[in-house]
């Protein structure tokens, strides 16, 4: 009789907490069991997030460029800074480092070796400029007005002698409008 | 009795808009601002042809970048500006250029020469060019000889 009653008691018992202690979030369980006095549906605070987004947007707006023009800066050169420069135009670009000359990101080579600055004639550069002139002439024949200027970028430690040699060749080939690419430096007066 | 109005602004579209703006601006941001200093070499290379007779004799304003200093010449009258820590002394250069500008307010042209020496580097050329342009001489001609 006593056995029967004890088994009945066990069969109707409410199952207890059975999560093993290793995974038991004890504090959380206690808060959950504490009753309905606490709201567990917490809203994410969005104010700080919107503040952060606003600041990001303002910062990025300051760096925004509406011209959409990309300018290739050779990784081997550091161009000098200038305060009074004008906005850069999209033109053919000659890059001069201490050991190579590139036209529109293509390193000019003579049979696999970069062109020699000691050679004042630089036939490879002259050949490429002739090709460029031909393309411009084709544009002119098609009724367009190609710009005959050219951009030069050079490493800040490149001897001016090398830049002048390239400039002389450009002038001889008819590119008289030469623009030096520089990094824009904000003036100390903040103008 | 006044009706209590406690409406929460729906922030989800704002966050969506901001997220799109941030992505768009990140893609169009310019981290390296590149600009240019222009020179018209036609004006300096055409010096072989004689000037028209009617033209008043102009004072030749020349700036020459040398190995150890910068020489600023107003016809034959010259001033030397030594480098400071191997860099162009922009302040002193600007002072003399300002004096020239006061003396010749209508002049905008100047000839920039450089010595054919490997110590004369491109950053010095740009520093002098920039100072000249910034102090009223936008027509800088670079002599390639």
Written overview of the protein:
Chain A has 191 residues and is of the alpha/beta class. Chain A has a domain at 81-184. Helices cover 35% and strands 16% of the residues of chain A. In chain A, strand 4 (101-103) and strand 5 form a beta hairpin. The mean pLDDT of chain A is 76. With 145 residues, chain B is α/β, with parallel strands linked by helices. Chain B has a domain at 60-142: 2-Layer Sandwich (Nucleotidyltransferase, domain 5). Chain B is built from four helices and six strands, in the order αβαβββαβαβ. In chain B, strands 4-3-2-5-6 form a five-stranded mixed sheet. Chain B starts with 11 loop residues before the first helix and ends with a strand. Residues 45-49 of chain B have low confidence and may be disordered. Strand 2 of chain A pairs antiparallel with strand 1 (34-40) of chain B, so a sheet runs across the interface.
The gist of it:
Chain A has 5 helices and 9 strands, in the order H-H-H-E-E-E-E-E-E-E-H-E-H-E.
